[in-house]
Amino acid sequence: MADLLSVRNLCSGYGHIPVLHDVSFSLPREGVSAIIGPNGHGKTTLLRTLSGLNRSWSGQIEFDGAPIPQSVEARARAGLVHVPQGDQLFMDMTVMENLAMGAYARPKGYDLQTGFAEVFDLFPRLAERRQQRVSSLSGGERRMVGIGRGMMAGGKLLMIDEPSLGLAPIVIEQVYDALRKLASTGAAILVVEENPSRIETVAERFFLMDGGKFEWTGDTEALRNSSDIVATYLGG
């Protein structure tokens, strides 16, 4: 079966400043992949370029067997879903309203209640907070809303940028427990994380980014046997 996502020689950046340098990789149609590496070396830029928020300077991106559409909306409708870093939510809207916004690209006739049930099964806390404004939630609860909103899009690939950023350890574990459950359904997920210890029990394949390019790739076993790689690039 053909790869879900195929990227070849992708270059991008901001203004005249290059960030990504000839990045090439592919993702299968199922399972969890992780991009790890130090901060400020292109991980977020890669996700933004894949989702269309950043313009690609050169290279090719194919998604689901075809050249990827140009606009952000068209990419979302094609099934490439981006959960951005931080709490980019509708703060004056309720949890339910934020989740419903995630389903805007779904075909007509989609049963919102089915989507809500899937999100609440993964994040029971959100079921308790469903009628609260997002502005009243904790940081961890907001992160759950962000991931849940991405789930509501029903995409073919869910890209999540730094799901543990700024959260307390106990909340990080709750978020990753949910990702494990989501991964068990066979969903295709791409997670960006700085710390590989948080994602190594969830992901099956890893791409280590440094200086805007991939310096190493491997599976979980290879990562655990590559302490020198981790120490060199992540200081651990």
TrEMBL record:
<keyword id="KW-0813">Transport</keyword>
<protein>
    <submittedName>
        <fullName>Branched-chain amino acid transport system ATP-binding protein</fullName>
    </submittedName>
</protein>
<dbReference type="InterPro" id="IPR017871">
    <property type="entry name" value="ABC_transporter-like_CS"/>
</dbReference>
<keyword id="KW-0547">Nucleotide-binding</keyword>
<dbReference type="GO" id="GO:0005524">
    <property type="term" value="F:ATP binding"/>
</dbReference>
<keyword id="KW-0029">Amino-acid transport</keyword>
<dbReference type="InterPro" id="IPR003439">
    <property type="entry name" value="ABC_transporter-like_ATP-bd"/>
</dbReference>
<keyword id="KW-0067">ATP-binding</keyword>
<feature type="domain" description="ABC transporter">
    <location>
        <begin position="5"/>
        <end position="236"/>
    </location>
</feature>
<dbReference type="GO" id="GO:0016887">
    <property type="term" value="F:ATP hydrolysis activity"/>
</dbReference>
<dbReference type="GO" id="GO:0015658">
    <property type="term" value="F:branched-chain amino acid transmembrane transporter activity"/>
</dbReference>
<dbReference type="InterPro" id="IPR003593">
    <property type="entry name" value="AAA+_ATPase"/>
</dbReference>
<dbReference type="Pfam" id="PF00005">
    <property type="entry name" value="ABC_tran"/>
</dbReference>
<dbReference type="GO" id="GO:0015807">
    <property type="term" value="P:L-amino acid transport"/>
</dbReference>
<dbReference type="InterPro" id="IPR052156">
    <property type="entry name" value="BCAA_Transport_ATP-bd_LivF"/>
</dbReference>
<dbReference type="InterPro" id="IPR027417">
    <property type="entry name" value="P-loop_NTPase"/>
</dbReference>
<comment type="similarity">
    <text>Belongs to the ABC transporter superfamily.</text>
</comment>
